[in-house]
Amino acid sequence: MKHVFVFDQDKCSACSACMMGCMDQNDIDLAAGDQCFRKTYDNEIALADGSTYCAYISAACMHCTDAPCIAACPVGCLSKDPETGFTVYDNTNCIGCKSCAMACPFGAPRYRASDGKMVKCDGCNERVKNGLKPACVCACSFGALTCVTEEEYKASGSNKACSALIDQLGLKKK
Amino acid sequence: MTELEKKIKAKIPGEDTGIEVRHSLCAICSPGIHCGVDCYVKDGKIIRVEGTPDHPLNRGKLCTKGSSLRNYVYREDRIKTPLKRVGERGEGKFEPITWDEAYQIIAENLNKVKEQYSAHAVAFFSGYCKWYRPILHRFAHVFGSVNFGTDDSTCFASMYIADKVTAGTGGGPDMGHANTFLGWNYEGYYSNHLSVAGVQKLKERGGKVIIIDIRDTPATKNLADIFLKINPGTDGALALGMAKLIIDNGWADMDYVEKYTYGFEQYRELVQQYPLDKVAEITGLNPDDIYEATKLYATNGPACTNFSASALVHHINGFNSHRAILCLTALTGNFDREGGNVPNPPSYIHKRAGFRSREEEFRSNRYPGGQRRIGAERFPLWEAQNDEFQAMDLLRQIEEQKPYPVKAVVGLGMNAKMFPETDKLLAAMTKNLDFFVNIDLFMTMTCKYADIVLPACSSVERGELKAYEGGYLAFTKPVIEPLYESKSDVDILCELARVMDLDDDLLKQGYEASADWMIDGCGLTVAELKKTGQPMKVPTAKWPAKPGKLLENGFKTPSGKFEFYSNAIAAIDPKFGLDPLPSYRDPLADQNDPETREKYPFYLCTGARLPHAIHSRVHDTPWLRSIRPNPTVEVHTADAARLGLQNGDKVALSSPYGEIRMLVKITGKAKEGVLMTLHGYTEANVNELIGRNHLDPYSGFPGFKGMRCNIRKVQED
Question: Does the model's pTM come out above 0.80?
Answer without folding.
Answer: yes
